[in-house]
Amino acid sequence: MKRAFPRLLAAALLLFGGMLAEPPQALARTKARQALVAPALWEVKDADTTVYLFGTVHVLKPGVDWFKGGIRRAFDQSDELVLEIIEPEDPREMASIMGGAAVARDGTALSQRLEPSARQKYQAAMAANSLPWQAFEMFNPWMAGLALSVAPLEKLGYKADEGVEKGLSAAARAAGKKIGALETPEQQIGYFAALPMTQQVAFLNATVDGLDDMEAQFASLVRHWQDGEPEKLAEEMNASLEATPELADILLFQRNARWAEWIKARMAQPGTVFIAVGAGHLAGRNSVQDQLKALGIATARVGK
């Protein structure tokens, strides 16, 4: 179970747009493989409507040249960009939303929810990642778990400003395209805030235990994304999803089903829409494509 959680934490950066992209501090160049970067793209079409589906990574290292070829052409042909969420312009607003949802209503200090040995490892991990554990005492465990899942990647050179959503949003604004969203920031944060306390504690403990594997796990997922290999990406995610079925259902499957319904409704309107969501939603069983198929809607992979 513990080894599955690092995959889930790495996958979270392929599942959530916006809320995981801010550096943890806001809350309390390499060009290698550039020529090979060709992420997967799908389309849904009828007589007067086209919906493109593009899987994103919310943090990347500088120099990853993904916005080209078929992806760029599909984006340029689109009238509208649809993301998971629209981030507030002021990052303090997102921090306020997240912080408000994370405050422990029962007044219990976060470290007191952990067994002594787990508490010691947690506090050491926070210190090693320049996160003052004392500043998180007022919060529920999921908040520290998310912070610890991002902090190592920040130290390794992954940047929120290099994430796919940032690039797409800037291009859409420059082109005067409409920008919409499938969810609100409050909804995304609510998925974690609503987890039972036992799952939150397990989430945090396993995050701490899996930090040593975090770099390799995330790098592998990003490599499969860059190479346009959703099947391999799904294989890496499957172990964590099977080991954590409750989290997988909340964070992935239920959302995929809702988004498929949204796409079905949107097909009744003419136009071209470019939808960009975490790459984990477009890979493996119960993906958005699977949910669309269940609704009688076919998707097709778009060439490079």
> Mind describing the biggest β-sheet?
6 strands, mixed
- Count of separate DSSP helical elements: 12
Alpha-beta classification = alpha/beta
Q: What's the structural domain tally?
A: 1
Uncertain stretches: 1-7, 21-35
Q: What's the rounded overall pLDDT mean?
A: 87
> What proportion strand?
5-15%
Overall morphology: globular
Number of DSSP E strands:
6
User: Fraction of residues in helices?
Assistant: 40-55%
Order of helices and strands: HEEHEHHHHEHHHHHEHE
The separation of the N and C termini measures 38 Å
Compact overview of the structure:
This protein has 304 residues and is an alpha/beta fold. 50% of the residues lie in helices and 10% in strands.
Entry keywords:
single chain, six-stranded mixed β-sheet, 6 strands, YbaP-like, about 50% helix, about 10% strand, disordered N terminus, TraB/PrgY/GumN_fam, about 300 residues, alpha/beta, Polysaccharide biosynthesis protein GumN
